[in-house]
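Forum: Protein Structure Q&A
Topic: Joint prediction for protein chains with partners

I've read a bunch of threads here and the consensus seems to be that you should model interacting components together rather than docking separate models afterwards. I'd like to see that in practice. Below is the full input, 668 residues plus whatever partners are listed. Could one of the regulars post the assembled result?
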Amino acid sequence: MSNENTLLSIKDLHASVEEKNILKGLNLDIKPGEVHAIMGPNGAGKSTTGYVLSGRDGYEVDSGSVTLDGEDLLEMEVEDRARAGLFLAFQYPVEIPGVSNLEFLKVAVDSQREARGEEALTSAEFLKMAKEACKQVNLPVSFLKRGVNEGFSGGEKKRNEIMQMMLLQPKLCILDETDSGLDIDAMQVVANGVNSQRSPERSFIVVTHYQRLLDYIKPDFVHVLADGKIVKSGDASLAKELEEQGYAWLQTEPTEDELED
Amino acid sequence: MSEWLQQAIARADSIQDGFEDQRAASLALLKDIKWPTRKTEAWKYTPLRAVERSAAIFKEESPELDPVAVEGLEFLELTFVDGQLVSLPEELPEGLSIEMQESSLFGTIKPERHIFGLVNDVLAADVAVVTVAEGVVVEQMLRINNLLSNGAQGHIRVVVDLKAGSSLKVVENAEGQGASLTTAFTEYQIGVEANLEHYRFALQSGDNVAVGGSHFKLFENAVMNSSIIGFGSDLQRIDTDIIYAGEKANAKLNAIYLLDGKELFDLHANVEHAVPNCTTEENIRGIAGDNSRAVFNGRIHIHRDAQKTLAELNNRNLLMSNKAEINTKPELEIYADDVRCAHGATIAQIDKQALYYLQTRGVSRSQAQLMLSFGFINELIDQMPTVELAEWVRPIIRDRFAQMEVK
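Posted by a regular:
Agreed with the consensus. Here's the joint model:
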């Protein structure tokens, strides 16, 4: 059982994709309000962590446990994990033409409110909320009418992810390489969006390959993930150290795990 | 030969006074024709029992029927009830004319191979000829209404002639009450640099039997954009032919079908690239539920001289029940060597990645499936150029789709 004061508790997690072991004993405890950065080389299992926690098909948990707010996360359906407060901002958000962004957001927010026993929002209330969220991430309101991520640029997709996070008000946000493919201006918008959502009740896992995002989103802890487990943890200064040294020092033996996207 | 066809021929024989050569030729062809069976390629998956058994009659008197209203749009209405032309627009914009007369275009765009097209040649009493004068852009939409009362049989025919540089928007709207039978054929000549925006709504279901076609001939730099939306019924068959007669012409065809119960819907789309430098884009999407059967045949024929043709045909289908059936057959016949041509036909379940994405936002799996299935066809509705029509048809399709889910 996890500590009362722990939001997320990952214990000795082993997981595989297509029968290939990716996570090999991951341990991580996150308390409410904390921001944890997970860094590491390609193929270390960074994206896999997000997929396993969110319950993606094809990501098999072999052993270990994960609890969110004391509940067994691994037993839940994908949507129930989201309703329990988990949010994954994708590195490559999916385009869904034909489903309007607004409709999608409304259904998502309604589903979560219903699961939490809250009253449904009226269309007008929701529209107002959605427009405000749009403004906060610098997306034109007209984007609400378009298909989900349809024809959005890379940066627009990332901002759309952050907008969803703002509307869904999760307890734990996993940002999967949200900085990839963004220029400095776009990254700042994303970082501002994230920072505006920081609160004593909300925790973040910021997965990134580069240190630069962490200049904008200041982490409380930095972990280095290599070959499926955390090999080093520290405070924000560890990120600087990694920036200077790279990940070469980790590679005592070559990993063949280049499976990750 | 079927009894139904014999009756049709007998009727044509009795009214053939005044047929021009073209209709007389069609009658001669019909008298020799073999009634389609399962062995007839063009009708392989579409049995004609519903026609053979139809008791729909030619009514002496028909009730007054009005076409459905579409919010935000006021059409120029060309309305047929039980095959008889009952109303024409009182006032026409300048440069647009509608006349009831023999047209030299009659039967020149619709290919002879369509058996029900031949039936229509000889049984469509009132042939309407719509002409848009050179360079005239008609803003108001023309709607051709094919309304059928209970148990009625009716055959309608419209010929549309867009002169060079003209522009027209046409909606073909079919509404049939129970147990009706209709053939509805339209022919469009799209002149040099002319532009046609076209819709064909075939939203009758139940025991309606409807066979028809929309046929287009495009001249140099002509542009057409067509959307066909159909529900199934006892028998619903649409043939389209897109024929390029001038270079650098461009056609886009989107079609949606949504079938339930024991319905049958059959779309045969044929494209003749007879000249170089033309572009075709076809997006055909369907959902078949319950015991229904969808048939799609998409032929693109690129003739030997049709170099630099660009043609894409995409047919995607979703099956909602294991008893539903989709028969899809893309046919590319390419005789030119410098063309870009792509086709694909899929019968699939829902996109798993999109499903997962929606679920990670808290949307239940079943609701996500619903959203994605609807989105799959809604994407084509979104592409309809006239927004008012999209807004009108979207809830109709959504309702039908919601009903399908319950079963």
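Chain A touches chain B through 30 residues (CB under 8 Å).
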